[in-house]
User: What shape does this take?
Amino acid sequence: MSRPRKAEDPTRWPVPCARCGQHHQTVARWPDGGVCGYCYQQAKRTRGTCACGHEGVLPGIIDDQPACRQCSGIRLNIDCESCGAEDELHSGGRCWTCVLGSVVDDLLTDPITGSIANELVPLAAALKSMKRANSGMTWIRQRHVTAFLRNLAVAPKFSHETFDELPDSRTREYVRGLLTEHGVLPRRDELRTRYENWAAEAIERTTEPQNRELIRRYVRWHHQRRMNHMDEVTRGTFLRAKQQVTVAIDLLNWLTDHGISLPDLTQAHLICSSHLSRA
Assistant: This one.
């Protein structure tokens, strides 16, 4: 994604950019004139087929159409020293894709074996082939993502259960999705699993042990039984089940706090608890 442009400054930069016409700092002088930093970046990222038939980066402009370096006479280093492709370079003369590949290999390599586990090879390939390598680098360089992938590299086994034991995060679910898509992990109904995990924690919010067992049976024999008869749990079913269990727990806790047993529950109590929950 291109960085947002700052407001132009005609006083500081009186000569406008030959491409956009705005007053920003000139960073390169090409055959068509001085080019600002924003247009310079855009030129390095412009890809297509030149009128001469060349396919690759087209930084030049001829007759209002993108053109290759040879046709436009532009001198620009966009040749990756690693893969040889024309692309925007990241560092060390290498393009973003090659640098991303090196980072992925480093993070997913087990330091003891010195190699990537066979189960993680499809994941490595998927991460390396991200459509936008620069966005992939931004994502993978986040501290929590880096830590997650390093831990994954030394995991003794790969299963949904081991993933469930890791801290809940978008990174965990994104990587789980990649492993599932590439056949490393079997497919499963994620909403059903999420509900089971949520319900196990929600039940513990019931303050009275007898009521806690009541909620446990309600979850198991009403909601989970219904979900088990569905080919795939819908988001609507998932959200309604969470809401209904939450309301039931809040009601039972309210009755406990007011010394009211479930057999003594009346319509008046329901109305009162409903009003208090909305307050």
In short: The radius of gyration is 29 Å. The mean pLDDT is 87.
